[in-house]
User: Fold this.
Amino acid sequence: MPRGERHLGLLAFESRDPQRFSADLASDFLGHLGIVAAICLENALNRSRLLRTGVTDFLTGFHNRRYLAARLREELARAQRVAGAVGLLMIDVDLFKGINDRFGHLEGDAVLKEVARRIAAQVRSSDTAARFGGDEFAILVPGAQPADLTRLATRLVDAAQAKPVAIGDDAAEGVTLSIGGALAECAPGERDYRALSERLMASADAALYRSKSDGRDRFTIDDRVVR
Assistant:
Protein backbone atom coordinates (compact mmCIF):
# COMPACT_ATOMS: atom_id res chain seq x y z
CA MET A 1 0.00 0.00 0.00
CA PRO A 2 2.17 2.90 -1.26
CA ARG A 3 1.85 6.43 0.03
CA GLY A 4 4.38 8.89 -1.31
CA GLU A 5 7.81 7.34 -0.83
CA ARG A 6 6.60 5.06 1.96
CA HIS A 7 4.72 1.80 2.11
CA LEU A 8 2.08 1.73 4.84
CA GLY A 9 1.23 -1.93 4.52
CA LEU A 10 0.72 -4.92 2.25
CA LEU A 11 -2.38 -6.43 0.65
CA ALA A 12 -2.02 -10.18 0.12
CA PHE A 13 -4.46 -12.29 -1.91
CA GLU A 14 -4.33 -16.07 -1.67
CA SER A 15 -6.36 -18.98 -3.02
CA ARG A 16 -6.38 -22.71 -2.51
CA ASP A 17 -7.06 -23.05 -6.20
CA PRO A 18 -3.66 -23.27 -7.98
CA GLN A 19 -5.30 -21.95 -11.15
CA ARG A 20 -6.80 -18.91 -9.45
CA PHE A 21 -3.87 -16.61 -10.23
CA SER A 22 -1.75 -16.59 -13.36
CA ALA A 23 1.08 -14.52 -14.79
CA ASP A 24 -1.19 -12.73 -17.24
CA LEU A 25 -3.87 -11.89 -14.66
CA ALA A 26 -4.53 -8.14 -14.74
CA SER A 27 -3.63 -6.61 -11.38
CA ASP A 28 -3.94 -2.89 -12.04
CA PHE A 29 -7.21 -2.75 -10.12
CA LEU A 30 -5.45 -4.37 -7.14
CA GLY A 31 -2.77 -1.70 -7.29
CA HIS A 32 -5.47 0.98 -7.29
CA LEU A 33 -7.13 -0.72 -4.32
CA GLY A 34 -3.82 -0.63 -2.47
CA ILE A 35 -3.48 3.13 -3.07
CA VAL A 36 -7.03 3.81 -1.85
CA ALA A 37 -6.47 1.62 1.23
CA ALA A 38 -3.19 3.43 1.98
CA ILE A 39 -4.93 6.82 1.86
CA CYS A 40 -7.66 5.60 4.22
CA LEU A 41 -5.11 4.11 6.60
CA GLU A 42 -3.01 7.29 6.62
CA ASN A 43 -6.10 9.41 7.35
CA ALA A 44 -7.05 7.13 10.22
CA LEU A 45 -3.51 7.29 11.65
CA ASN A 46 -3.40 11.09 11.36
CA ARG A 47 -6.76 11.41 13.11
CA SER A 48 -5.59 9.09 15.89
CA ARG A 49 -2.39 11.13 16.34
CA LEU A 50 -4.40 14.36 16.42
CA LEU A 51 -6.78 13.02 19.06
CA ARG A 52 -3.87 11.72 21.13
CA THR A 53 -2.10 15.07 20.92
CA GLY A 54 -5.19 16.78 22.32
CA VAL A 55 -5.20 14.63 25.48
CA THR A 56 -1.46 14.12 26.03
CA ASP A 57 1.07 16.26 27.85
CA PHE A 58 3.96 16.75 25.42
CA LEU A 59 6.65 16.95 28.11
CA THR A 60 5.95 13.85 30.20
CA GLY A 61 3.86 11.73 27.86
CA PHE A 62 1.19 11.52 30.57
CA HIS A 63 -2.43 12.32 29.87
CA ASN A 64 -3.43 15.93 30.43
CA ARG A 65 -5.99 17.51 32.73
CA ARG A 66 -8.74 17.42 30.09
CA TYR A 67 -8.38 13.67 29.67
CA LEU A 68 -8.27 13.13 33.43
CA ALA A 69 -11.55 15.01 33.90
CA ALA A 70 -13.28 12.89 31.24
CA ARG A 71 -11.90 9.61 32.62
CA LEU A 72 -12.89 10.58 36.14
CA ARG A 73 -16.53 11.04 35.11
CA GLU A 74 -16.47 7.71 33.26
CA GLU A 75 -15.01 5.86 36.25
CA LEU A 76 -17.56 7.40 38.61
CA ALA A 77 -20.37 6.17 36.36
CA ARG A 78 -18.82 2.70 36.21
CA ALA A 79 -18.28 2.62 39.98
CA GLN A 80 -21.94 3.48 40.47
CA ARG A 81 -22.97 0.41 38.47
CA VAL A 82 -20.82 -1.93 40.56
CA ALA A 83 -21.32 -0.13 43.89
CA GLY A 84 -17.61 0.66 44.11
CA ALA A 85 -15.41 3.67 44.80
CA VAL A 86 -12.98 5.81 42.85
CA GLY A 87 -9.74 7.08 44.35
CA LEU A 88 -7.68 10.11 43.37
CA LEU A 89 -4.16 11.12 44.37
CA MET A 90 -2.94 14.69 43.81
CA ILE A 91 0.86 14.96 43.73
CA ASP A 92 3.09 18.02 44.01
CA VAL A 93 6.87 18.15 43.52
CA ASP A 94 8.19 19.85 46.64
CA LEU A 95 9.98 23.18 46.21
CA PHE A 96 10.16 22.77 42.46
CA LYS A 97 10.41 26.52 41.85
CA GLY A 98 13.81 26.44 43.51
CA ILE A 99 15.02 23.90 40.96
CA ASN A 100 13.88 26.12 38.11
CA ASP A 101 15.48 29.19 39.70
CA ARG A 102 18.86 27.53 40.28
CA PHE A 103 19.22 25.33 37.20
CA GLY A 104 16.89 26.85 34.62
CA HIS A 105 13.63 25.71 33.06
CA LEU A 106 15.18 23.17 30.69
CA GLU A 107 16.73 21.27 33.57
CA GLY A 108 13.48 21.71 35.48
CA ASP A 109 11.68 20.01 32.61
CA ALA A 110 14.15 17.15 32.77
CA VAL A 111 13.39 16.75 36.48
CA LEU A 112 9.66 16.65 35.76
CA LYS A 113 10.18 13.94 33.13
CA GLU A 114 12.17 11.85 35.59
CA VAL A 115 9.53 12.30 38.28
CA ALA A 116 6.87 11.24 35.77
CA ARG A 117 8.92 8.15 34.92
CA ARG A 118 9.14 7.19 38.59
CA ILE A 119 5.41 7.75 39.05
CA ALA A 120 4.58 5.65 35.99
CA ALA A 121 6.65 2.77 37.37
CA GLN A 122 4.38 2.56 40.43
CA VAL A 123 0.89 2.70 38.91
CA ARG A 124 -1.23 -0.15 37.58
CA SER A 125 -2.24 -0.40 33.94
CA SER A 126 -5.84 0.24 35.04
CA ASP A 127 -4.88 3.51 36.74
CA THR A 128 -4.69 6.83 34.91
CA ALA A 129 -1.69 9.07 35.51
CA ALA A 130 -1.95 12.67 34.35
CA ARG A 131 -0.03 15.90 34.52
CA PHE A 132 -2.47 18.21 36.25
CA GLY A 133 -0.45 21.33 35.56
CA GLY A 134 3.02 22.73 36.23
CA ASP A 135 4.72 20.50 38.79
CA GLU A 136 1.48 18.81 39.86
CA PHE A 137 0.39 15.32 38.85
CA ALA A 138 -2.71 13.23 39.53
CA ILE A 139 -3.48 9.51 39.56
CA LEU A 140 -6.98 8.14 39.13
CA VAL A 141 -7.36 4.79 40.92
CA PRO A 142 -10.56 2.89 40.01
CA GLY A 143 -12.02 0.49 42.54
CA ALA A 144 -9.81 1.82 45.33
CA GLN A 145 -10.08 1.50 49.07
CA PRO A 146 -8.27 3.73 51.61
CA ALA A 147 -5.58 1.07 52.06
CA ASP A 148 -4.97 1.02 48.30
CA LEU A 149 -4.36 4.77 48.22
CA THR A 150 -2.08 4.51 51.25
CA ARG A 151 0.03 1.77 49.64
CA LEU A 152 0.32 3.63 46.35
CA ALA A 153 1.15 6.94 48.02
CA THR A 154 3.81 5.21 50.12
CA ARG A 155 5.43 3.72 47.03
CA LEU A 156 5.38 7.09 45.26
CA VAL A 157 7.02 8.92 48.16
CA ASP A 158 9.69 6.22 48.44
CA ALA A 159 10.34 6.15 44.68
CA ALA A 160 10.80 9.91 44.52
CA GLN A 161 13.39 9.99 47.30
CA ALA A 162 15.12 6.72 46.35
CA LYS A 163 17.99 8.57 44.68
CA PRO A 164 18.76 12.14 43.57
CA VAL A 165 17.68 13.20 40.10
CA ALA A 166 20.58 13.93 37.76
CA ILE A 167 20.68 17.53 36.55
CA GLY A 168 22.99 18.18 33.64
CA ASP A 169 26.34 16.38 33.58
CA ASP A 170 27.68 17.15 37.03
CA ALA A 171 24.77 17.90 39.38
CA ALA A 172 22.02 16.02 41.13
CA GLU A 173 19.09 17.11 43.26
CA GLY A 174 17.06 15.24 45.82
CA VAL A 175 13.34 15.34 45.00
CA THR A 176 10.43 14.71 47.33
CA LEU A 177 6.68 14.62 46.82
CA SER A 178 3.68 15.86 48.77
CA ILE A 179 0.54 13.83 48.12
CA GLY A 180 -3.13 14.15 48.98
CA GLY A 181 -5.72 11.47 48.38
CA ALA A 182 -9.48 11.04 48.57
CA LEU A 183 -12.21 8.54 47.67
CA ALA A 184 -15.61 9.11 46.09
CA GLU A 185 -18.73 6.97 45.89
CA CYS A 186 -21.80 7.57 43.74
CA ALA A 187 -25.26 7.48 45.25
CA PRO A 188 -27.60 5.14 43.32
CA GLY A 189 -29.54 7.96 41.69
CA GLU A 190 -26.59 10.30 41.11
CA ARG A 191 -26.26 11.65 37.58
CA ASP A 192 -24.15 14.78 38.02
CA TYR A 193 -20.78 13.09 37.66
CA ARG A 194 -19.06 16.36 36.83
CA ALA A 195 -20.00 17.93 40.16
CA LEU A 196 -18.98 14.78 42.05
CA SER A 197 -15.63 14.66 40.24
CA GLU A 198 -15.00 18.30 41.15
CA ARG A 199 -15.76 17.56 44.80
CA LEU A 200 -13.35 14.61 44.69
CA MET A 201 -10.57 16.74 43.20
CA ALA A 202 -11.20 19.46 45.78
CA SER A 203 -10.99 16.93 48.61
CA ALA A 204 -7.76 15.38 47.30
CA ASP A 205 -6.29 18.84 46.72
CA ALA A 206 -7.14 19.89 50.28
CA ALA A 207 -5.39 16.75 51.56
CA LEU A 208 -2.38 17.63 49.42
CA TYR A 209 -2.11 21.06 51.01
CA ARG A 210 -2.31 19.49 54.46
CA SER A 211 0.72 17.39 53.50
CA LYS A 212 2.56 20.51 52.40
CA SER A 213 1.61 22.39 55.56
CA ASP A 214 2.79 19.49 57.73
CA GLY A 215 6.30 19.65 56.29
CA ARG A 216 6.16 18.10 52.78
CA ASP A 217 7.66 14.74 51.74
CA ARG A 218 4.57 12.91 52.97
CA PHE A 219 1.01 11.97 52.08
CA THR A 220 -2.40 12.58 53.58
CA ILE A 221 -5.47 10.50 52.72
CA ASP A 222 -8.82 12.10 53.57
CA ASP A 223 -10.79 9.64 55.69
CA ARG A 224 -14.14 11.10 54.56
CA VAL A 225 -15.68 9.54 51.46
CA VAL A 226 -16.88 12.15 48.97
CA ARG A 227 -20.50 11.74 47.87
In short: Residues 2-54 form one domain. The chain has six helices and nine strands. The two ends are 53 Å apart (CA to CA). The longest strand covers residues 85-93.
